Every structure is written in structure tokens, then in C-alpha cells.
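Honest question from a wet-lab person: if I give you the sequences of every part of a complex, can you actually get the arrangement of the whole thing, not just the pieces? Trying it with mine:
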Amino acid sequence: MSEDRRRAVLHAIVEGYVSTSEPVGSKALADTAHLGVSSATIRNDMAALEEEGLIAQPHTSAGRIPTDAGYRRFVDHVASAALQAPHKRAITTFLSDAVDLNDVVERSVRLLSQLTRQVAVVQYPSPRESQVRRVELVRIGVDRALVVVVSADARVEQSTVTLGRDVTEVEFEDAARAINEVTVGRTPTTLAPALEVWLQRDRQHEWAAPVVEAVITGARGGTVERVVFAGASNLTRAANDFETDAIGPVLDALEEQVVLLRLLHEMAAEGRDVSVRIGAENGEDAFSRTSIVAAGYGGSGDAVSLLGALGPTRMDYPGTMAAVRAVARYLSRIVETE
Amino acid sequence: MSEDRRRAVLHAIVEGYVSTSEPVGSKALADTAHLGVSSATIRNDMAALEEEGLIAQPHTSAGRIPTDAGYRRFVDHVASAALQAPHKRAITTFLSDAVDLNDVVERSVRLLSQLTRQVAVVQYPSPRESQVRRVELVRIGVDRALVVVVSADARVEQSTVTLGRDVTEVEFEDAARAINEVTVGRTPTTLAPALEVWLQRDRQHEWAAPVVEAVITGARGGTVERVVFAGASNLTRAANDFETDAIGPVLDALEEQVVLLRLLHEMAAEGRDVSVRIGAENGEDAFSRTSIVAAGYGGSGDAVSLLGALGPTRMDYPGTMAAVRAVARYLSRIVETE
DNA sequence: ATTAGCACTCGAACGTTGTGAGTGCTAGAG
DNA sequence: CTCTAGCACTCACAACGTTCGAGTGCTAAT
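Yes, you can. This is the full assembly:
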């Protein structure tokens, strides 16, 4: 009973089930997959695979379908496919004429959802260390202010803060001038202590503490992490795989973002080229019938951002992995040269 | 055959069908609705209503369900319900501690989707005429620039433009200073001609035409109209009304925005307090089984922005209309006092 | 180790039948 | 002229039984 053939059987089952969405039986395998053995032999192998928990049968007299563990084994043993040439071209043409960071992200997520025919998810790139170009402070009412930080690498961060106490126009303008003097030309790391010093120097400035805080986080690129998604309708296309009512929770989770972000972070921590989470591996009820294929882009270590595709566990893993990897690579290039 | 009773029958059919999602028959109506007549009489009325095209039967021996026209008649004759007290409180508490325009919009859309148990849609408020506070220009590479316009009412608009030709740092800084001098303190209407004059004065400035254009549209509040939506999972809850595969196109249309924006504009043009589009009235395949309840907020005439709820034609119109109106009113207050 | 053969299982598809909700119509009462 | 009672009729739907066949596990032979 060769180990190799058993793996081949598993792969054939996965591929068959993915493409037809029907349980695959021993006879069908013997006919279509070219394993050179009879259906009886395949049945034996299947029994062994079932013993290992890699495949299961939905009911007694049906064929086999892969379990989450089966998909996992399959994914770990398969090199991600080469991307089809037309898809490659699509990536180049579609992303190259983006005008704007927002535009790049938006285009990427749409592109990825089209390539994979799944729901695509793209996290906004984490900003790089770059000089502050200008801080704009606008007084709104007597105790609130708008803080805008413009960085040299063409990012604009804004936030609204409530001041420590009511301030006059004059006080406000003075502080704004001073903060600009201290800040402009510095990078986030050197800027934070400098601002703290200014803040301490004169008790008069106490009210500006929230502003300083906002400037610092703004210079770092803001605190809010965001993901955008596209292709939600692909979930309905797969509605037979999911029981139909499994797609509601997924939509909620996509809108909620927080769970999704947690998962993406976990996947980033794995530090692989392309990482895959299958069904229950996500440890989330909403995603218990869903797989996520994700890759990092635009940096390494903490600076990495993520993008990925998300769909039913019964998905074309090699193809999806190839598309995700390709878009991630291309996006890395764009973000770095921008 | 009293006209009034016939209307009552129609209303009873709508209400019954909305709450049970099953066709309602003459006998059931005679029992539950207190019309004081027998089922036979109701049958006669039903025949008349069917003649008018207001109701239909899904198959021969079934009860009646309202047609789009039936819902329309119903909606036109029903005063929108009073909002329930807990809902009223929810609006106040949920929206009052928003920190930010973005935050307001985001909270509104979530709130509305919860109140109506439908998909909620909120358009970003159209900006009001307000002074330009500062224009920040950042040179990116040799022929591109980032344009940031900060308005006195705490808006920040940014865009990236490609310059007419390569420019040096010095040229660029000069132009930036000049543009600020001309622009700051002016409102969009007075600002545009002033900038044009500056542009004409010296052929040297020709390359800056795209920048000027960006400043003008930025001051006006940008060109891109955006809507955000929330509660997409409510579509799946209603999946029995829709045939399940009708929700895909709706999701696509929501992501696409353009169709949705067109519809909202059309509805704004009707100029009613709350306007309702029912099923085929939308004139869009994607929304042919979907109703939209929308209201304007934050201004009048062209300045109005829209928000609304969107769900299957079999929807609780009075309740939805009440919620939409209430949120719109509250949002108007917030946007105006901001 | 592999294969052919065989008995067995059980879901899906199909046909039949019964049931009841709902209808339209007619004739009579107010 | 309006309403009601009564009745025959229609037809989706559920329940039930049957058949069919894909797929299995096991055994004995190669």
C-alpha cells in the first residue's frame, strides 16, 4: 500500500470534489484519475484515509468528501499553481493606472475578487516612517480642534480632538505655530519626545496634550486599521456549499472587521509566504465553514500588511493561492516605489 | 361595495403577508381582521382588487399577496407609524457621542440597519460652502503632486495630480506659496475665478493647471460621492422572500455604488419627506424585488444628502419609514450644528 | 499487494394518493 | 343593490411506497 498513491487519491478526491461539488466515489476515481489501479484498491486507500480523518462520507452510500484536515494535508503538499497568463496581464493593466493610494487598494480588492471568484479582503498598507511635512490645526468651537498631519510620502491623516479646556483663538494659533516648528521635518520616532518636551516646558500648554497625542499618532499613520472587501456576491454563488444561512454571519464579520483583523494578524504571525486557514482552524463560528488564503505585502515584520481571499472550504486552493501571491507581489512593488 | 372596506381589505392583506410571509386567504381575513363582514364578501372585494392589479395569487388555490402596485397603494395611504420610544432613545444615545463626521456616518448606517432590520445606506453629507483654511502641496517625484485642501468647517480633501511638465523644487514651492495667498480665506465660488486669473497671469504657471483644478474641486468638497452600507446580512435573513439567488445582484449593486447613487438621486428629486421605491419601480434588474425607503438630510435642494433602507418588497413599510425619517431628522440636526 | 465479484445500504427520484385551504359562482335574504 | 350562505371545484403540498443505482465493505482468488 504505497504512501504515494494514497496521497494521490486524496488529491484526486479534493480536486474532484472542488470541481463538481459532489462526493466522489471509488469507481469514478478509477476511471478519471489515472492511478493505474482498480476501484477496489482505491476503496482500501479510502478506508485508510478515512481512518486518518482526512475524508468522510456525508451518508452511508455516498462518495467521500475531504474534511478540513484533508484540505489541510492537500494544501501543505501542493505547490501553488502558476498564474494563468491572461490573469497576469490583468493584474498589470488593472493596477498600473491607479492614481492614488486609496485607488490602489480599491482596485486591488476588486481585481482579487475577480481573479479568485471569492470575497477579497485588502488591509490598508501600514505607513512607513517618513518625515512630517506640515501639521494643520483648525479650531472648531471653543474646545475642539481638527488635527491634520501631512507626511512627505503623500499621506494625510486627520482626527478631531477635544481640548483640555476652552482656549482663545490667540492661544490656539500660538500653539499651532509652535507645534509646527517642533514637528515639521521630523520622523515619528524623533518627533514624539520633542513634542513632549515642548508640552512640559510651559504649564500654559497643558490644554494641548490631546492635540500632541493626535499629532503623534497621526504621524505614525493613524491608529485605525482598516480592511476593505469586495465580491461579497461570490458568497451567494457558493450558497450550495454553505448551507444558505451560513453566509449571514460571514457578512456580519466582514462588516464588523474586528474578527477579520484578528485572524489576519494571526496569519501574518505565521510568517509564511502565503498562509491558509481552513474552516474550523479559524476558531471562529462565523468562519467555521470558510477558508481564508492570505499573504503579506509591502514590508516585513510588523510593517507588513495583509490581503487575501475568503470563501467556502471547498475552494480552488492552488488557484486562489497563486492569485493572492501574485497580487501581493505586485502590490508590494507599487507601495515601495510610491 | 364600499370603497373604504376595499382599502381596508388591501391593508389587511399587506399587513398579514408582511408579518407571516404567507399568502392570506379570505377566511383568515374574516376571522382575524375585524371587518364585520363574511368571507364571501371579502372574496368579492378581493376579486375587484385583483382586477385592479393590486393583489395576485401565486397559484390557483392559494391566498392573495400584494403586487408592487398593491404595496404602492398601501404606502400612499398609510401615515408612517410613530417611532417606538426605545428606538427613539437608541438614536439619541447612539449618535450623540460620535466624535467625527466619519464616525457620525458610520454610526448612523449601523443604527439604521439595526432599527429597520434591513440593509441601511447613508450617503456622505454634501459639503457646505465654507472658507478654505489652507492648501498644502507636496511634490511627489518630478511631475506629480499631492494636493490637500483644509476647509474651515473641518473637512480635509486630498487628491494626487500629474503635472503638466517636470518642475523643479523651487518652481513648485513658489507656486505653492502663490496659490495659498490667492486661496486662503476664500469660499469655493470666489476662489475659482481668482485662481484662474493667477494661472493666466504668467505662462510660467501653465504646468500648475491640474493643481488649480484639484484645489477647486477639493474646496467644493471633492467630486466623489460615496455611500456606505451596513447590515448586508439582513438580506440573507429574508432569503425566503427573495429567491436566494436574488441577493447576489443586490450585493453587487451595493458595492458598485453607481446604480444605487442614481436611484438615490432620482428619489431626492421627488422632493418628498420620505420617498419609497417598490420593486420594479426602481427600473433596475438588480432591485426588481427590492424596495428602497429613503429620506434626505442635512440641507435642501441640491445640498441634500440621502440615507435609506433597502430590503425585500415584502417589508414593514410604516416601521421602516418611521425609522428612516427619524434618523434623517436627527442627522440633519447634527450636521447643521457641527 | 491487488483485484474481481458480490451482497448490502441508503439517499434521491418518481408516482400515487389524500387532504385542505382557498376560490368562484349561484341563489336567496335584507 | 349589497351581503351572505352554500357548494362544487382546483390544485399545491405532504405523506407514503417503490424503484434505482451509486457506492460501500468484505471475501476469496491471483
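Two things worth pointing out. The first strand of chain A starts at residue 55 and ends at 56. Chain A touches chain B at residues 99-100, 133-134, 136, 138, 140, 146, 148, 150, 152-154, 156, 158-160, 162, 230-233, 235-237, 239, 244-245, 247-249, 251-252, 255, 338 (CB under 8 Å).
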